[in-house]
């Protein structure tokens, strides 16, 4: 584990330099324990170059993550940053630190011996001539790596701007169309039948685009407060994306032998989350944690279904599991 040894050595040197500088003004100079080493400006420049290259690789990881690059690019850039940082530490440990290996029993800790060890560590950095340059490069590399490590935290959700959670292609007045881009008439929606609709002129692959549309008996509707006018003639529309894992709602359960069978329900085939369309797509069964977002509807003078606004809530599962397009 040479890289680990190099890392520990470099850390001890840094700590020793700080302690030695603090103690220099509090006690008289002591006789050197470690002989001064020959400076190696070339090795210092190599270490600085490696540290800056590590910073660039870490910055590349952040940029690639922001652009949605594949995992191979993300892993390669992060691995390159860590490898370059390790190489820089190896150069420092092997060419810029005075090394001395002694084989003897480790004595019991003594105050004087502890000070001697600290002095040895501090004097081991006598070959360093560009301490500020190295420290600056190390700070840049460490800062870039720190940013790279915390960058994936943005996937947990928007911190300040939450508008993306509610941004969909739907807006008031937009017509509902089928897969062939034909407008859907309200009279064409029959009870007991499951329909899929999309916003006219928008990309059907967008997460907030697809709808499930069903017609129910208006007397059976029990929508949440404030949605009294959202279901003209008993027609309700909900997001087709399940709020559990982002699968598509693809099943519509209708009673076959009333009144013994359950009421109509929308069912996700992935994990069988079941939603009640008569009560605002409230969860009846399964792992889904919240109802399907409802889209308010209206009927124009030509009898065509149109959106009367945006969804009642964010589309799909939690933000960490949301993709811009549904999984195929």
Walk me through what this model shows.
Helix 1 packs across helix 4 (about 110-125) and helix 2 runs antiparallel to helix 3 (about 70-95). The protein is α+β, with helices and mostly antiparallel strands and about 325 residues long. It is about 35% helix and about 10% strand. The chain contains six helices and ten strands. A hairpin with a 5-residue loop joins strand 9 and strand 10 (about 305). The two termini are about 45 Å apart. The chain folds into two domains: about 1-155, no CATH class; about 165-328, Rieske [2Fe-2S] iron-sulphur domain (Rieske Iron-sulfur Protein).
**Form type:** elongated
Task: Report the order of strands and helices.
Answer: HHHHHHEEEEEEEEEE
- Hey, roughly how much beta strand do the residues contain? 5-15%
Radius of gyration: 33 Å
Q: Mind telling me the CATH superfamily name of the largest domain?
A: Rieske [2Fe-2S] iron-sulphur domain
Biggest sheet strand order reads 1-2-3-4
Gap from first CA to last CA: 44 Å
Describe the main β-sheet briefly: 4 strands, antiparallel
The helix content, as a percent range, equals 25-40%
Characteristic key phrases:
34% helix, single chain, 4-stranded antiparallel beta sheet, alpha+beta, 2 domains, Rieske Iron-sulfur Protein, 328 residues, disordered C terminus, 6 helices
